């Protein structure tokens, strides 16, 4: 498993989770040459699958690097509330009409999944309870820290893990 990140500071945590290696895309540099060099350096032709938390950052950059019949799974949008100032890094990659043309021509599976089904949640909770699933935590926030919870969940840059809201008790 390989990881792609825009934050070099995330690399140690990603490796600790079992990632073989990380491609760091610097926001100030063109993404395509870095992706091509990374694939070549790791003797990879293309990726079999991509699991991407922020499709508006990576989809347009990665779809050409998915093998025929590959899968692209995403569960979120980074700029879900829009931005006043356009971000040139976000605009890098293929135009959306070409993205969808490639999805069709390469017979790619594009899956948008955020919460899953009740069964998915039950299975994940069972895996967690059995020690098969490690969930990195950034913070656990109690009822006295609602503003802190919202800030850490939606605004904190460099957050590496989930922010949990405890419905009873003070900040943990």
UniProtKB/TrEMBL annotation:
Entry superkingdom: Bacteria
Gene3D superfamilies found in the cross-reference section: Medium-chain alcohol dehydrogenases, catalytic domain
Protein name in UniProt: Zinc-binding dehydrogenase
């Amino acid at each position: 498993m390989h990881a792609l990140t825009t934050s070099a500071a995330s690399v140690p945590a990603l490796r600790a989770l079992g990632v073989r290696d990380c491609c760091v895309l610097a926001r100030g540099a063109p993404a395509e040459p870095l992706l091509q060099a990374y694939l070549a350096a790791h003797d990879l032709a293309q990726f079999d699958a991509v699991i991407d938390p922020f499709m508006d950052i990576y989809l347009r950059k990665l779809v050409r690097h998915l093998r025929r019949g590959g899968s692209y799974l995403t569960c979120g949008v980074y700029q879900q509330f829009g931005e006043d100032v356009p971000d040139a890094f976000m605009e890098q990659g293929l135009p959306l009409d070409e993205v969808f043309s490639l999805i069709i021509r390469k017979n790619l599976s594009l899956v948008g999944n955020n919460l899953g089904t009740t069964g998915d949640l039950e299975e994940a909770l069972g895996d967690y309870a059995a020690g098969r699933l490690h969930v990195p935590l950034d913070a656990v926030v109690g009822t006295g820290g609602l503003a802190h919870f919202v800030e850490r969940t939606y605004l904190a840059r460099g957050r590496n893990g989930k922010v949990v809201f405890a419905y009873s008790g003070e900040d943990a």
